[in-house]
Amino acid sequence: MEKPDVSSKPTGSIRRIFRSNWGRLTILIVAVAAVFAAYQAVTILFISDTVELANDNGEVNGVLVDGMKNGSFHNDDIFKGPSGKALHVGNYTAPPGEIIAFTKGRAPTVLSDSQSETVPFWTPATDTKKFRFEDEYVIGVHFWIITGPFEQQRKRALLAYSKTLYIWSKERQGIRLDGFHIEDRTTDQDADIILLRSRENPPTLQCEDVGVLVANGRYVPNTINIYYGAKVVADDRRKDDRPVIGPQYGAKCSDYTDLPGVFILMGDNTNRGLLAHELGHALGLYHIDSFSDTANPPQPYFNQKNVMHSASSKTRNSLTEGQTFRAVVQDGSALNKIYNARLDPLIKRRCNDEVGPDPTDPHGCPPVDTRIWVDH
Length: 376
Ligand SMILES: [Zn+2]
Hints:
elongated
C-alpha cells in the first residue's frame, strides 16, 4: 500500500489548520495554566513534607530546615515536636536542602543534600525525610591536681565536672563526660614540678608549663588534660595586652606541644561554670560577648548566662543550638581532632564565627546565635 505523501502538502494548509484551531488552542493553554496554578495553590496549602527522626531519646525534638518554599530560599526554619511523631514542616519544593536535628541525649545531627545528591532533597510533592540521630558522644577527661590542698581542689574539680554534665545535658550538646578521673599529684617531688610549684608564691601555672607537665608524665594522650594549680595566667590578655593572672582564672592552651591532646589550666578559686567555658574553647567555640544588633543602643545577642561569655561570672548556664552544632560538627573541635569520634568527612564542617548566615555557602553552619529553645 502506498503511503500518502505528507511532505508534498502545501505549507499553507498547516497554517490554515493552526488558524482554525487557534481558539481551541488558546482555551487549552489557559486551562493547562489554570490547572497548574490550582495544583500549585493546593500544593502550598495542603502538601506538607515530614521529617521522621529515629533513635531519639523520648524527649522533644527540634529541627532547623533549609529549602525552597513559596519561591524563596528558607534558611534554618524552626520546627519542634514530641518524640515518636513525624514533624510536619510545610511544603519545601526544591533544593538546596538540609535538616539539622537536636534533642536531649543525642548529638546534633545533619541530613544534607551535600551528603547524597542522587535524588533532589525536596520536590513539589510530599517529601518524607527520615534519618537517625547520632548517638551521644562520650569522652574522657583527666584531672591532675598539681597544687593542693588536694581535698579542696578535688571538690572544686568535681563541682566543675558536674556543672559541665548538667549544662551539656540540658542544652542538648550531645557530648557527655565519662567517669571522674582525678589524680592527686600534690606531693610529687620531680625536680621540674617542684620548680614549677616554687616559682612564685602562690604558684602560678601558665600555658608555657604544658611542655614540662607532659614531659614529666602528667599527660594522657588523645584526651583533654585538666590541671588544677593555685594561680593561672589566663589565655586572654587585657586590652592593654597585660596578662590576666589570678586564682579565679582558667586557660585553654593551644600549640604548646606537638603531642595529641588538649590542655586546660584551672586556678584554685575558679567558679564551677568556668570548666564548661574552657571545654567550649576545646570544642572550637569562641567568645560571643561582642555580638550585638544594630539598634540604638545596640542590644547584645548574648548575656552572661551564655557559657562562652568571657566575663568571669557565676551565671554561665546556656548554649545556643548554633554553638552545640559547632562543638560537634566542626573539624577543629576536640571531638573530631583529639577523640576522632566522627570519622565521616561529609558530616564535618568548618563554620564561620558569625551571628548572620554564611553568605558564601547555603549549607553553611547555622549562625552562632541560632536558638530553637530559649536560654534559661
Ligand atoms: Zn574564654
